[in-house]
Amino acid sequence: MPTHDYHIYSGGAIGIDEYAEQCAKDCGMHMHVVIPPHHNRSKFITPLHPEDLEEAEPHLQRVAERTRRHLFTPNTFSRHLQLRNFHIVKLATAVYAFGFFQQQPITATYSLPVNIQGGTGWTVQFAVDQHKPIYFYNIPEKRWYQYHAEHYYWHEHQWLFGNGFLPMQGSPTLHKHSAVVGSRHPTPEALAEVKRLFQTTSSLENMLDEQRDIYCLLPEHGD
User: Fold this and answer.
1) With pLDDT > 70 as the criterion, what percentage of the chain qualifies?
2) Which of 57, 88, 93, 94 could bridge across to 177 with cysteines, CB 3.0–4.6 Å?
3) Residue 91's domain spans which residues?
4) Which contacts qualify for 37-46: CB closer than 8 Å, 24 or more apart?
C-alpha cells in the first residue's frame, strides 16, 4: 500500500488525537503516539525521556510569554503534557490542527500570538516557532485555514501587513510526516473531516501509484 511511508504524530488524547490514530492505522500509515513519562499508555508505547522534556522547557516558556498562557506547575503530569506538544511538532514536517479560535478569525488570525483555544493553541504556536506549515480546521465554521508567516491582507479599507491564518480554498492533504492534533470535544463534522483528510490522502497516493505502474509498463521509446 503506497501510504506505508507516511508517518503520523499525535498525543494520544481522547477526541481528535484518538480518532486520527485509528484513521492512520486504517489507511496503513505508521502512527506515532508521543506521550510523556508515566503516561497510562507508556506500557504500550515508548514514551519521551526526561531529557526530552528538558529540551522542550525553554520553548514552552517562550510560547507562554508570547501567548500569555498559563504554565502548569513544573514536574507535574499536566506540565509534561504541555512539553509533549513541542515534540509532536518537532517530529513532523507539517501540522494539522482541529479546534476553535478564541475570537472571530478576522481579529484572531491577523496578528500574533496565535489565538487558538486550549492545548491545540500551544501546539500550533510551537509549530509557528519552528516554521512548520500549519493547517487549521476551525470547527464552528467547518472551514480550513492555512498559516502564512508574512502576508498582506485587506482590513477596514486598507492593506495591512501581518502574520496569521487565511481561509483556504478547499481542503489540504497530509504530508508524509504529519502531526494531527486537536480538541478533546470534536463535533461529528470535525471527526468526519479528520477521516476525509486521511482517506483523500490515501486515495491520491493510490492513484499516483497506479500511474507509476502504468508508466513503468510503457515501452522505453514509445514503440
Assistant:
1) 81
2) 93
3) 2-217
4) 37/80, 38/77, 38/80, 39/12, 39/77, 41/12, 45/12
